[in-house]
């Protein structure tokens, strides 16, 4: 069970004081009479990824006490505050208070009427449990006191001054400082009116310096009012308007915030590698850790004695399995299996062919194009470039190996050439299948029940492995254990054998798994090895070895981005399984529910920095890894953003949608684009849809 006190203590103990900021702060005090400090995310900060996660803690407390009645409370609480603020704006008021928010909440849920005291208590208890004093600001306040400089706290907040004062006192600040709160003055820093109140409160001639994290409310607006401002962005919280807001997301929230605060990265100045490391220590650890925990349980329940972790996407899961010494602890041995769609599907498809005739299934695979490809790349992905008669025939038809082939142009001509040379194509691919069979037999896939572990989606590799083993005279017993399965896997069940997904299965509607499917490319890249794709198999020194593609470009990306992510994830997983993680998380907390919540929070509502780093990852979406694109092409400087964005063709739909909206400089075009995005994502939850406006 997570201990809030333990999390605060660990963060405080590992805090690295920003002495440079403190020195600059002290240098700003010459001639200053009063220093005003923002409260939340300046004087105080929370051990949570987002401030609204306080509502998830309250929901957890209320549901534990009163049951399912309070399931979904956190979202209702957030919506109630939004509605209360809308009512206030319509009445030309800048701020609301807690009572007004609760009135809106109860108007929508009358059954909450008898629980007002409990609701208020749960939220205030969550605030006290998660807030702590920021060391730099605590030191700055002490210095001001030593220099006889007056200190005033100023907060834009719906909570009362008494509540905020109690939070400050509990965190270690004394009661000598004054406090101005927007819920009581009726004005906010953000709209600028609070600064007139501050100036009147401090004295007309007072020379004031304000310190806060918000660029608009704490820097720009006070400066416009003639008040000197000094930014403190280090502990600024994330703002994620989309994704889940439930108790299940709290493990991710604590782990992400802990990684950020201990690393001193709140200012946004972290490198891409540091961002990936923080994501690995939180998101990666929760997702991979929950899958590994599930794998142990399901493999034992199914009676499996061997697990085959598939290259390349199963790499991180295999590393976690080894790091945790699960071969010994479970009695289930693990093998890293060099396979790919490229290496097995082309050979397996010959089972449906005759030596002199290629089946429609084979032709469809050999000529499949998701977007225009060259004749050269299509030959390369089937390893057919050495079949001279075929190549010469193709040159007669297309004229050049760089001629483009698309589904509507050239694909039929390519198929006809393949069929004319069916004999040599069949023989070549059949040898590929035979080599694969020898490799699978060498690795023991033909013996007894075997678990196939991979990220998943279509289960085409497992189906091809089973086909090849059966063609070799064996009766495979394969059990596929995947992160998730798409509906397309349904048609492969009879061929592939047992199929099961941790976070989503093929019988579930894709519309219900939009959080997971937005994370497909992130998972594939974050969990993959630095090796190139498996091209096939060859005999060497008496054994059959995998042939791997050159991975120079992928190796560079892996070193800069993926390796920091994986190293941090493995370290955090080890600590969790050992019961030694700073958050207090233990193995039992690594549930599929918490893993799924983590997946959806990041994939459906990334911060701008996360979007920039993850969106820059180079990814190969096609079968043969010929084409390499960034996850979010809209981030490229030359990207053209219009009023329509086909999200079905995007590797990360939400990432592309957010990037496109932020890049769109034409207000009218932006409105049309937002409408187009909402239309395509109409089945998303209301929180996530609210981002597209």
TrEMBL record:
Give the highest taxon in the source lineage. Bacteria
InterPro entries of this UniProt entry? HAD-like_sf, HAD-SF_hydro_IA, HAD_sf
Q: Does the keyword Hydrolase apply?
A: yes
Q: Which stretches are annotated as coiled coil?
A: none
Q: Keyword Flavoprotein, does the record have it?
A: no
In terms of NCBIfam families, this protein maps to: HAD-SF-IA-v1 (TIGR01549)
Its name, as the record gives it, is HAD-IA family hydrolase
Q: Which organism is it from?
A: Acetobacter fallax
